[in-house]
Design a protein that fits this description.
It is built from 51 helices and 33 strands. A hairpin with a 5-residue loop joins strand 13 (190-193) and strand 14 (199-204). It is elongated and about 205 Å long. The strands form nine sheets. Strands 2-7-5-4-3 form a five-stranded mixed beta sheet. The protein is an alpha+beta fold. The longest helix has 35 residues, at 682-716.
């Protein structure tokens, strides 16, 4: 039994109704270009005639083919007076420059006088006015694009290049001739293209009948011809000939057509005309004769009254199919009742034609606006005096009962707003006025212009600007009309309501005007029906039977059910009665009750409790016997529980299937390319999403009424014949399911009305960067989103960017043959809407909608969405937490975000979105999914620069990674890094010590050292305990010290402090000594020398602090390359690996060695301080080189000190000082001035205060004092001084001669001889001989002169011989001869004395 019922349900619910959806644009109105056509020379006089507004349209022939350029593309037009507006629309692509307005000056357009045709190369538009006919030639879309595949989301319209030249070209327009002239009493017209490309216009003739104007083909020369189609029977001519004009009028009824239509054959055109005499005539244009006449009154049951009246309201339509032939639809207008007759044209072999009557259909509506005919259906549009629009359709072939199917048309917004006491009037009215789909942009603009007394500047405003202008205008009006200065709050509220309701009334008035229907437009290729209105376009789309039954007015409900065959099963009857019950409840609810349910859904109160409360209120206020009516309806339902179950199943979009995330790769590329733009235009997006809104709105109301009904059934219990406890349990289950349904539909309805926010480009880019960190940028829900200009709802945004591709992919996987059969709009719309609802359905596993909101930076909307979802939806709980966390992060609420991230962690592996989040190829931690999740979140937080949160989350994640040392190492490294970034040095050190991975620990340690050094937080660095890491720290600091620039980083000093802090003085000394060595080698500046001296002092201090036997260090390798373990090998200039130096001897340095180095350093510093230019060379110079530099600088005391320290000869010092004395003696004033500087740097033994002294004297005095102080073996220093003086030809000072005579007179003689100073040599010899003999012996250092009793004395005979030799060689020189003689004589005296003394000595001995 249940199986049968389910089958019946399936059969019933396949049947569909239709509802109207507006495609009115929001935001800035489309830019319409205006063209003006006036006849050359202003040829025609102004016409007072104004016809009714009309509209129509044309679907391209390829509009139903998937691979066509013109797929889903059409042109629609509207006329008003002399203005024609043409708009090209596409459901796939946004067309640019797609609207144009042509004003025909001094003309009025005939209603329905616009006809559009396609040729291979052109789109041709034929226009008829009351004075002219026109041909507009536009390029065909297929000729505008080279590529068959269209992949852009926008392209140019055929109207892009329309210009005045088209209108003004004489070959493309013609003035209707005055003979025969246009009939005044008829507005019928028809037009077509001939087979050769000519344009033909059929118009009612002023002289009776029809005349046809023929414009030659646009690319051929020719003249315009006129042909009249008139009745040619003799009787007709006789009658009209005999009767006076006064009796017969201008034309007889039979002559004036009220509606015309053309059917083109290969070389002929059949013109069908319905005349005022109710006759249908068929004309052949080629033969210019009437082929058939049929009296329509023959098919009217009661025709007597009609015969006497002119058939002014009749209409005619044709429908043709190659298989079924030509169908003719005629609407016969009668005062109380209209009638449609459908005929099929039948031709015999002898080319005689007749009509085969198919069907007659009757209607009770009054004013038919338009109808369209297909080979199976009639769609009709009525509009009555109360502005009620009615659309109905009927299948005339299969509908025996003649029952029309009504379409649920879109009603105007509520006439008055019901405001709650707590609502702010401005907020409530603004919300109502700007709710998506309520008012067209044009209506709001017009209302604003009238309200603010016609401000022309308001022609082109965006949605937000319009909102602001309206608010300003109403507030301005409010303030301008108040005279009081003080109001009570209630009075002010009433004033607000008054002015806002006034503006709202204007909006309603213009919306009603724009909503006036003008025509129906049916696409025979895709079965799409559009309603053309005064101000916008709307689409008729299929809806499910359940919605249709609920939306229909009361009267035809049962008839509709019968016509759908519902009375065949018990179940069908139950369903209809159930929906009737729901309608009864819905209509009886007050505004307050309806509002209560909405507010409670918004506040997340349980809907079943609200329904119970509403039911109580209904029972309490039941004055119209509502409960009795419902009870009697319930009696008609045989099985309420089953009926409710089926209804809930029909409304539930929950599916276990995870929808496919990509296009089907198996499809050919060109099919996928064609599908990529299908239904992608803003119009299609708008319509589909409006459909989803309408469904969600209707279903929300149905669920509300169903909840109330279920509460009523629970109250009635056994009285309602419902059975026992099992049934009660089922009821409770259904009640719960209905609650979930109503909340789901409320959520979708909310999303369908919630506008998306504008997002700055930089925010989108930043968001994209964050998504790339999460590896979500490849998700179809997160394609880089474009900025939208018109206001979009978040559902439209989702459909446009994500859901559309999914829906179409799904559709064409299951319907691979659609490419051949063509697109069926009703089927496509139903499938796509259903798919979109499934994607939006909160209980489904897919999570694309929130993902899309995240990708589009719609954070406020996303937060509100999750808030509405959270308490009752138990699917994707973790994913929602993750999204909420993202929102909190963007809003700057990091700690809330962290809580949400942690909550989401528990759902990893259970939800598809979170699974995708952790599915990544390059995740470091490949352990547990939850750790992978934490890793992703940590990366995101890192990108956003939130170290505190990273530390908290990583600390939490460590508890997860208890058994996984690799993950622990990664997390601890992460914690260390961010503690260090924040300056939490102790915590960073603690994290480092707990790291289980030694290599990472070493990396962290290295980073800690470098960062703390850069920040100069050295005390922390030194004082950390470094348990088990001591050697590593030392190694790292040593490596850094040796690898970086000495003057910018103080790693050596850090290392020194490190060792001192640990009382390791020898190490500290060794470090400072190495530092000093490198400074001398690498830093050749004064500052470097100062540092070097200090380093050596520090090293000495360290060694003095330890016991003498341990006071030594190892000499650091000179010029060594300090390598880190694992570093790449060093290479020579030719790329070869450099040879590793052989191990050399270890050199031990003791305290005295350090002291010598320290002295050397201090002396270098002294030199550099005295003469900064020497700093560059002093630092690396040896002691010998340094002596030279000191001497050059005049620092003789320092040089002598250095020589004594390093046991060096003082010769360079004496030579240097001697040279300085020579320079001073012969130098200028500048040399003397400069001398005082270096003289001041040396210490004199005594100060002469008795007389004024010169620099030269002081220099000589300094030299003299040095010679006295520093004795040398063999009087080396005297000799070198004299040698230097004599070398430069400087006469020896007396003090020097006297001084040297005392110590080595013989050497002085030799020096005289070396430099050819013969006269001085002679004097010296003479004095020396005298001294030996006892005369002035004290001057020569001879203690006792020559005597027998004293020690022996001697003379330098060799030197004296050389002197005599030199004097004797040049005896010609008188002076030399005299000198020779003197010496010779003196020697003679000496030898006599020696002989005597020798004898005395011998005598004494003997």
């Amino acid at each position: 039994r249940e199986g049968k019922m389910a089958a019946a349900a399936a059969a019933v619910l396949v049947e569909r109704g239709y509802l109207e959806l507006s495609a009115a644009e929001r935001g800035t109105r489309r830019r319409v270009r205006e063209l003006v056509f006036s006849l050359p020379g202003g040829g025609v006089s102004p016409s007072a005639v104004r016809y009714a507004d009309s509209a129509g349209g044309y679907w391209y022939q390829g509009s139903g083919q998937l691979g066509s350029v013109t797929r889903n593309r059409f042109i629609h037009w509207a006329t008003s007076g002399g203005t024609l507006e043409l708009v090209e629309e596409s459901l796939d692509i946004n067309l640019l420059n797609n609207a144009v307005q042509i004003k025909f000056q001094n003309c009025s357009l005939l209603p329905g006088g616009v006809h559009i045709f396609e040729t291979q190369n052109n789109v041709v538009i034929l226009v008829s006015t009351n004075q002219t006919v026109h041909r507009l030639l536009l390029p065909h879309p297929a000729r505008m694009y080279r590529s068959e595949l269209i992949t852009e989301n926008q392209m140019q319209s055929v109207f892009t290049d329309i210009g005045k030249v088209h209108c003004r070209d004489p070959s493309n327009f013609y003035v209707i001739p005055t003979v025969p002239g246009l009939a005044a009493g008829s507005t019928a017209s028809a037009a077509w293209l001939s087979s050769d490309g000519g344009a033909l216009f059929a118009l009612p003739s002023a002289s009776g009948g029809i005349f046809v104007l023929s414009l030659p083909p646009h690319d051929a020369q020719g003249i315009v011809s006129t042909v009249e189609l008139k009745q040619s029977s003799v009787m007709q001519r006789l009658l009209t000939g005999w009767m006076p004009t006064a009796i017969r009028g201008d034309q007889s009824l039979s002559d004036l057509p009220v509606s015309m239509s053309v059917h083109c054959r290969e070389h002929d055109a059949f013109l069908f005309a319905l005349y005022q005499d109710h006759k249908l005539r068929m004309w052949s244009y080629k033969d210019q004769m009437c082929l058939m006449v049929a009296d329509m009154l023959d098919f009217v049951p009661v025709s007597k009254d009609l015969r006497l009246a002119a058939g002014i309201g009749h209409k005619l339509q044709l429908a043709y199919s190659e298989t079924l032939g030509l169908y003719i639809g005629v609407y016969l207008h009668a005062p109380k009742q209209g009638q449609f007759c459908v005929f099929q044209l039948v031709s015999t072999e002898s080319h005689r034609y007749s009509l085969d009557h198919i069907s007659s259909l009757f209607t009770s509506q009054e004013t038919l606006v338009d109808f369209t005919l297909t080979t199976a259906e009639i769609w009709a549009l009525w509009h009555d005096d109360e502005s009620q629009t009615t659309v109905k359709y009927i299948n005339f072939e299969h509908n025996v009962a003649g029952q029309w199917n009504p379409v649920s048309v879109q009603s105007l917004p509520a006439e008055e707003l019901d405001l709650g006491d707590e609502q702010d009037p401005r907020e409530a009215y603004t919300e109502a006025i700007f709710a998506p789909g309520h008012f067209a942009n044009a209506a709001l603009l017009k209302a604003l212009q009238i309200f603010s007394q016609g401000a022309e500047r308001l022609s082109d405003l965006s949605w937000d600007e319009l909102k602001r202008e309206i608010t300003i205008a109403v507030e301005h009006e409010l303030q301008g009309n108040t005279t009081e200065y003080e109001f009570s709050r209630e009075e002010f509220r009433q004033l607000q309501i008054e002015f806002w309701s006034k503006f709202y009334a204007y909006c309603l008035q213009y919306q009603e005007e724009l909503s006036r229907p003008l025509a129906l437009l049916l696409n025979q290729y895709t079965n799409m029906v559009c309603l053309l209105k005064k101000g916008y376009l709307s689409f008729l789309v299929p809806c499910s039977l359940v919605d249709h039954l609920y939306l229909l007015p009361d009267e035809p409900l049962m008839n509709e059910a019968e016509s759908a065959g519902l009375d065949e099963s018990e179940f069908s009857h139950d369903l209809v009665s159930l929906v009737q019950c729901l309608r009864l409840i819905g209509e009886s609810l007050s505004v307050e009750m309806a509002l209560t349910m909405e507010m409670d859904c918004c506040r997340l109160q349980p809907p079943e409790r609200t329904a119970e409360q509403i039911l109580r209120d209904l029972i309490a206020n039941d004055t119209e016997n509502l409960m009795e009516d419902i009870h009697s309806k319930l009696q008609e339902i045989r099985n309420p529980i089953n009926a409710i179950g089926v209804l809930i199943r029909e409304m539930d979009y929950e599916t276990d299937m995870e929808m496919e995330r990509r296009f089907n790769i198996a499809q050919p590329l060109n099919v996928r390319m064609h599908l990529s733009q299908l239904y992608g235009s803003s119009t299609a997006v708008n319509v589909v999403c409006r459909g989803v809104y309408k469904v969600s709105m209707t279903r929300f109301l149905m669920c509300r009424d169903l909840l109330i009904l279920q509460q009523l059934l629970l109250r009635l219990g056994d009285a309602a014949n419902l059975g026992g406890g099992q049934v009660f349990h089922t009821q409770q289950n259904l009640l719960h399911r209905t609650s979930v349904l109503i909340l789901s539909y409320y959520l979708i309805r909310w999303a369908s009305q919630r506008l998306a926010s504008d997002v700055p480009v930089d925010e989108l880019e930043s968001n994209l960067q964050h998504l790339s960190v999460l590896k979500l940028t490849d998700s179809t829900a997160l394609t880089p989103l474009k900025l939208v200009t018109s206001p979009q709802t978040i559902v439209e945004l989702f459909f446009q960017e994500v859901a559309r591709k999914h829906a179409i992919s799904q559709l064409f996987q299951s319907n691979a043959a659609w490419d051949e059969t063509g697109l069926s709009w009703p089927q496509m719309f139903s499938e796509i809407s259903s798919c979109l609802l499934q994607l939006l359905w909160p209980s489904n596993p897919g999570f694309l909608f929130p993902e899309c909101l995240m990708g589009a930076c719609q954070y406020i909307q996303l937060q509100e969405y999750i808030r509405l979802l959270e308490p009752w939806c138990h699917v994707n709980v973790g994913s929602c937490c993750f999204m909420m966390a993202r929102c909190y992060l963007v809003m700057g609420e990091g700690h809330k975000a962290l809580d949400c991230f942690c909550e989401a962690a528990s759902e990893v592996e259970k939800e598809e979105f979170l699974d995708r989040l952790i599915r990544s190829e390059d995740v470091e931690m490949v352990s547990t999914p939850r750790l992978q999740y934490y890793d992703k979140v940590l990366r995101l937080l890192d990108t956003m620069g939130l170290p505190e949160l990273i530390i908290q989350l990583a600390t939490l994640a460590i508890t997860e990674a208890a058994d996984d040392w690799r993950s622990q190492a990664t997390l601890r490294t992460c914690i260390f890094k961010h503690h260090l970034d924040l300056g939490h040095n102790s915590q960073a050190y603690e994290a480092l010590t707990h790291n289980p991975d030694s290599s990472r620990q070493l990396d962290c340690l290295r980073q800690l050292v470098v960062v703390l050094c850069e920040r100069s937080q050295l005390q922390d660095l030194v004082e950390f305990p470094y348990v088990n890491l001591h050697n590593e720290v030392v190694g790292i600091i040593e490596y850094r010290a040796r690898a970086v620039d000495l003057m910018t980083h103080n790693y050596y000093e850090l290392l020194y402090a490190f060792h001192i802090y640990r009382h390791n003085y020898r190490k500290a000394g060794s470090v400072m000594f190495e530092y000093g060595m490198r400074l001398g080698r690498e830093v050749h500046t004064l500052r470097g020398l100062q540092k070097q001296a200090n380093c050596y002092l520090a090293a000495i201090n360290c060694l003095r602090l330890i016991r003498p036997e341990y006071a030594w260090i190892v000499q650091p390798a000179s010029g060594a390359v300090y390598e880190r373990p694992g570093a790449s090998p060093k290479r020579s200039h030719d790329g070869e690996c450099a040879a590793v130096p052989e191990g050399s001897q270890i050199e031990i340095l003791e305290l005295k060695d350090l002291e010598r180095e320290c002295t050397l350093a201090r002396i270098r510093l002294t030199l550099a301080q005295h003469d900064p230019s020497t700093a560059a060379v002093a630092g690396s110079s040896s002691p010998e080189e340094l002596v030279v530099l000191l001497v050059q600088a005049g620092l003789f005391d320092t040089a002598i000190s250095l020589c004594q320290t390093f046991n060096l000869s003082l010769t360079p010092v004496f030579e240097g000082l001697t040279f300085k004395c020579i320079q001073l003696q012969f130098g200028g004033e500048a040399a003397l001035t400069e001398a005082w500087d270096w003289l001041a740097a040396n210490q004199f033994s005594s100060v002469i205060a008795t007389k004024e002294t010169s620099a030269t004297d002081e220099a000589w005095r300094l030299l003299s004092s040095y010679l006295d102080r520093f004795k040398s073996q063999n009087n080396l220093y005297h000799r070198c001084v004299i040698n230097k003086l004599l070398f430069h030809g400087v006469p020896l000072p007396n003090w020097l001669i006297n001084s040297y005579k005392k110590v080595d007179a013989a050497e002085l003689l030799r020096l005289y001889l070396n430099y050819d100073l013969l006269e001085e040599a002679v004097d010296l010899v003479l004095e020396y001989v005298d001294a030996v003999l006892g005369k002035g012996h004290g001057y020569f250092g001879i203690e006792v002169p020559l005597s027998a009793t004293s020690p022996r004395v001697w003379l330098p005979y060799s030197a004296i011989d050389q002197l005599l030799q030199a004097l004797g060689e040049n005896t010609a020189n008188h002076h030399n001869a005299m000198l020779y003689q003197k010496v010779h004589d003196k020697l003679q005296d000496y030898q006599q004395q020696v002989t005597m003394t020798t004898r005395d000595l011998l005598r004494l001995r003997n």
